[in-house]
Amino acid sequence: MRVSTSQIYDIATISMRNSQNAVIKTQEQIATGKRILTPADDPVAATTILQIKEELARTQQYNKNIDIAENNLALEETTLKGVMTLVQRMQELAVAAGNTAVMTSADYQALAAEVESRIQELTSLQNTRNASGQYIFSGYQGDVQPFTVDGAGQVTYHGDEGQLRLQASSTVTVAVSDSGRRLFMDIPSAHNTFVTSAAASNRAAPPASISIGQVYDQDAFDAFFPENLVITFNDPNSVSPPGSNFTVSERGTGRQLLVNQPYTTGQAIEVAGIRFSITGAPTSPAAANLPFSPAAAVDFSLAPASVTVTVGGVSETLILDRNVTSSADLLAALGSSVDTVVGSGASENANKLARLGLVLDPVRGLVSPNGANVTLRNGSAAVDTVTGLSTQGAGVTSTNGRAGDSFFVNSTNKEPLLGTLSRFAQAMREVKDTPESKKELAEIVARTLANLTNAVTRISSVQGEIGARQNTLESARDLNLDTDLFSKRVLGQLEDLDVAEASTRLAMESFVLSAAQQSFVKVSQLTLFNFI
Fold first, then answer.
1. What domain range includes position 311?
2. Interior angle at CA 211, CA 198 and CA 87, nearest 5
């Protein structure tokens, strides 16, 4: 077989290149200490190595999460210890305040001053922030200040009920926060109580406010519970002489408990065993009305007609059953208390208007003094004729009504911690040196102590949960450490280089490369010219 010179060179070049690559690869392995430099070196082992490295990265992140969780829980634990210390001091003051036989109103003023300063301290604790500037008791809304207390003692929680959680291992998540609502708002009350609030639609400027209030007759309030109250401000002309006045009604049934009571700012309002006050200048309603402008006479005694009147979502159907020739006839028909046509039902018109709170006026027509707009609908062409309004179908609605300010009293069996202290301080501020006043204060003190005990129970329970979470984090950290050590050991077995074996291999590969180079030198010098 003929071997050309170029083949000799090609074969020698390939041999030396392969030997050189082997030497270089072994040198890189020794330099890095790694057996596998590319996935091609061992595809199966490379896949396993990638999975192990991902697991190690996850474990590292879990440990970072544990550090964050431990810091958050430590801050919450410290904060709750401060709250517990404060509550214990309030219990001491409540016990002292219970000694009504010897303490005077001046003594109670001093105690109230300390309670009020402690309320500010407690509010600050409940608005604690972590190192990132997030409020720790706001639930998911870490940027929102959770608690505010206004000058009337009203406590408002602005956060939510969310609970932040962090992954501590592949199978363990741990809560790292607690909602302020659960901790400080939804504390079981030792007695039926209430919370007060102002309607968001109130228009007084500056806004009128309602006090936190007191239960002064527990038996009377227990009989009323769980009904709620609404306080609405009425048309000044509804009392004589005209002036600001209000009505207190059951929110669910509409039953009126106090009607058209003259209003004086800051004056105590007592109803259903509770006492509260409203301060400021609440706005009165602007009456709504639908004026009539009859176009022609219609004799409804021949064919009675009906029209639906709706006010504030409540509807009544009025019957027209008499001959209407003028505005006066129309008002008489709408406010009828007799049936002109036997069995027509017009006799109930007056009662229906009273239930809706409407009055009839010769000039203004159908009037809603409380400011709720009025709708006339489901009428007929004949009704349109005598009213001058489009009552058919969806009908017509007044647009000039405007409700007065309103306030709410909602019954509850829960008492915010700040609310308990605000009521306690208010009671001591208002106590008088009379047996009746001190008896009422003694009852409030007893309720305060019971509620503070419930608050201690709730906070202690959460403190126990925090301790359990910290133990869980410690166990998760130990598990992560074991997982990390095992993963690194397996990774080393797959990835680390046997240096002794690699050194021996490098010496052999270097020898082969040297031999190839020397052989090529000798072979390349063999030509026919050497034998001529």
1. 288-397
2. 115
